[in-house]
Design a protein that fits this description.
There is one protein chain. By secondary structure, the chain is of the alpha+beta class. It contains five helices and six strands, in the order E-H-H-E-E-E-E-H-H-E-H. Strand 4 and strand 5 form a beta hairpin. The radius of gyration is 19 Å and the shape is elongated.
């Protein structure tokens, strides 16, 4: 069996409204973060969101996460650079934990498409700036080291898309 899924991803939350510089740090960024947390039910699903006790993404100086968690999840912004927008980073383990907890709590399946539908709002847009996919071979009898060596030696070819 093959399991194709999303590993880690990064979102940019981009305000739709025009604003003055000071409004970014005092109102716009905090409101976007608050709305995002509410819409995605992050507190219920992952735990209490607090000021970050982990390192922030490069260039960001204000951030929030689930303190003392086993995964890396961060919401951050730079209070002096509005064009960096609000960034949301889910590590692979954070996303897996979110999906599993969401499904347990609400009895509904969660995937990346459904997650994005939660963000269909008038106040801000979102842009996926990074997404890493993963493919797990489950009980396929494949030796990963042999597959790697075969690809490196040119005996196996990896293709993407449709081929005839």
């Amino acid at each position: 069996m093959l399991n194709v899924d999303v590993d880690q991803f990064t979102l940019m939350l981009i305000p739709k409204c025009k604003f003055e510089f000071d409004e970014w740090r005092e109102e716009i960024a905090p409101n976007i973060i608050s709305d995002f947390i509410k819409r995605t039910k992050l507190r219920e699903v992952l735990g209490e969101i607090n000021e970050s006790d982990q390192s922030l993404p490069v260039g960001y100086n204000i951030g929030f996460n689930v303190n003392n968690s086993l995964f890396y999840f961060n919401i951050a912004y730079n209070d002096h650079m509005p064009k960096m927008y609000v960034i949301v980073y889910f590590s692979g383990f954070a996303w897996t934990t979110y999906v599993k907890n969401f499904e347990t709590l609400y009895g509904e399946t969660m995937n990346i498409r459904r997650f994005f539908k939660l963000l269909d709002v008038d106040f801000y847009d979102y842009r996926l700036s990074r997404i890493d996919n993963c493919i797990d071979f489950i009980n396929e009898g494949i030796s990963i080291s042999k597959l790697k060596k075969s690809i490196e030696n040119g005996r196996t070819e990896v293709r993407y898309g449709r081929y005839k």
